[in-house]
Structure formats: C-alpha cells, structure tokens
C-alpha cells in the first residue's frame, strides 16, 4: 500500500482520548486526519480552497493502537473539471522494532471553490 519513496503529507500520534471501548483508535479520528491530508494535496493542485464532497471508498486493514506513529500519504488518483480524487493511504510505525503496519486506505473527492464557495474549474497544466 505505501511506497517508502512517497512523501508523507501528515504524521500524527493519537492520544488517549482518541481510544474507543475496544482499546483501538476511533475510526472517525483517522477519517478526520485523512480529510486533512487529502485537503492539503487537493488545495495544492487546485491552487486555492477545496471542499470534501465524497468519500467513495474506505477500507480499514488493521486497527490503530495507542502509541502508533501514524503517517498519511496522499496523491492525485483522478481529475475532473472541478473535482480531484485523492487517494489517501495510512500506515503506522509501531512498537520497539518500529515495524510498518498498513492501517487504512480511502478515495476522497474534493471540489475546487471560488470566492463565493461555488465549484470552479481546476487550473490547467
């Protein structure tokens, strides 16, 4: 899932308040982090503000544990006239041996916004 050559867009460490009753990190917490990472990449591509309009697919592979260092990788998967599909892959660095664990992956769609918060065409080139 994650390519070691790819740039990490966001790196975060969950806190004790992010744990659910199973001792794992809430799915909503990672979803929020993914939206932030995807928005960073989409905003760069759009050269301005963007809004999340859809999460088309999301797959949880492994639970996120307290103590994980969570890295988010985001890149453009597809482009429309006003929208951008951003793939976000999430992995953890875990334990004393610092092993890499794939956590989740999702495809988020962002739309470029104009000054009136309406969809606008993406820059060309």
From TrEMBL:
GO terms for biological process: acyl-CoA metabolic process; fatty acid catabolic process. Keywords: Hydrolase. GO terms for molecular function: long-chain fatty acyl-CoA hydrolase activity. It comes from the Bacteria. The keyword Lipid biosynthesis does not apply. InterPro entries: Cytosol_ACT, HOTDOG_ACOT, HotDog_dom_sf, Thioestr_dom. Gene3D superfamilies: Hotdog Thioesterase. Residues 2-116 form the HotDog ACOT-type domain. One of its GO terms (cellular component) is cytosol. The keyword Ubl conjugation does not apply. Pfam families: 4HBT. Transmembrane segments: none annotated. Belongs to the acyl coenzyme A hydrolase family. This is Acyl-CoA thioesterase.
């Amino acid at each position: 899932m994650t390519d070691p050559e790819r740039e990490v867009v966001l790196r975060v460490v969950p806190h004790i308040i992010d744990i659910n009753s199973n001792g794992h990190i809430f799915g909503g917490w990672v979803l929020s982090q993914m939206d932030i990472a995807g928005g960073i990449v989409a905003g760069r591509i759009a050269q301005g503000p963007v809004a999340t309009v859809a999460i088309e697919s999301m797959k949880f592979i492994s639970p996120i544990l307290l103590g994980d260092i969570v890295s988010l990788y985001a890149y453009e998967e597809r482009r429309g006239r006003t929208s951008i599909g951003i793939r976000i892959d999430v992995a953890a660095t875990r334990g004393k041996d610092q092993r890499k664990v794939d956590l989740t992956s999702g495809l988020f769609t962002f739309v470029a916004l104009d000054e009136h918060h309406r969809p606008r065409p993406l820059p060309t080139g």
